[in-house]
Amino acid sequence: MSGTLEERIERVKQQIEQACRRSGRSSSEVKLIAVTKMAAVEKMREAIQCGLCSFGENRVQDFLKKYKLFGQDVEWHMIGHLQRNKAKQLVGKVEMIHSLDRLPLAQLLDKLSKDQGYPWNVLVQVNISQETTKFGLSPHQLPEFLDAVQDLKGINICGLMTIAPFEEDPEKTRPVFRKLRQLRDEIARTRPHLNLYHLSMGMTNDFVIAVEEGATMVRVGSALFSEDEQ
Questions:
Q1: C-alpha to C-alpha distance for 179 and 37, rounded to whole angstroms
Q2: Does domain 5-221 have CATH number 3.20.20.10?
Q3: In this structure, are residues 12 and 219 in contact, taking their beta carbons and an 8 Å threshold?
Q4: What is the mean pLDDT of residues 2-25?
Q5: What are the residue boundaries of the structural domains of the chain, listed by start?
Q6: Are 229 and 39 within 8 A, CB to CB?
Q7: Is 12 left (phi over 0), alpha (psi -120 to 50) or beta?
């Protein structure tokens, strides 16, 4: 990674644009979420000045520190595994939770929605690669889970999220992203009442492939913020 933060942002945006062109899509269909776990406060300010407005955090405690500084001037996404005892701290603060992966959490969010006065926007995390080190429902668990939460009015399921295995050759991640898209499309056929528009997939190493396979949100951190800028 090289160049100024502004140059890095522009480089990532250009890569998204080129991937969209190759796959016959508009770049307006893809949201760049800047993952800020490695970003110092001054770099976040600079990123906002450069036009970034959507930021993702993995941990609630780190999110709360940054929320105190930037509040609702930006759009916040909780992208990491969410513990039930931390969920209440997000009430009224986040645009979307990307990591809904179990029924008890869905039921808790449903209850907490009364505190914030509107439903949570959520994505269901699916462990496409079936890695034991990753959270998420297995693909075959997804239909049953969606049926179990369909009457919870406090959550608005907007789509699916997955994390691909790290590969030196990003092309090897393509089947993972393609399978998530195909799974979403199959759910759309069998459960047309659901509007699973969003696919949150792709990180620094593989976001270009994810966009080519239909990602509507990419979560990019180290391509923007380096460790020496913490």
A1: 28
A2: yes
A3: no
A4: 96
A5: 5-221
A6: yes
A7: alpha
CB 138, CB 103: distance < 8 Å: no
Phi, psi of 172 (to 5 degrees): -70, -15
Strands (E), 126-216: 155-161, 198-200
- Could you identify the residue written with the tokens 């969010």? 109
Average pLDDT for residues 209-224, to the nearest whole number?
98
Mean of pLDDT over the chain: 96
The residue assigned the tokens 């006065």 is 117
Asked whether the beta carbons of 220 and 34 are under 8 A apart, the reply is yes
User: What letter represents residue 175's amino acid?
Assistant: P
CA separation for the pair 230, 85 (Å, rounded): 28
Residues 115, 87: Cα–Cα separation, whole Å? 12
Asked if 216 and 30 count as a contact pair (C-beta separation under 8 A), the reply is yes
- CA-wise closest residue to 79 among 18, 139, 173, 161: 161
Number of other CB atoms surrounding residue 91 within 10 Å: 15
Cα–Cα distance, 168 to 65 (Å, whole number): 33
- What is d(CA 213, CA 109) in angstroms, rounded to the nearest whole number? 30
Token duo for residue 133: 């080190």
Hey, which bits of 106-173 come out as E strands?
120-125, 155-161
β-strand partners of 220: 34
100 φ/ψ sector (left φ>0, alpha ψ -120 to 50, else beta): beta
Q: In this predicted structure, what is the pLDDT of residue 38?
A: 80
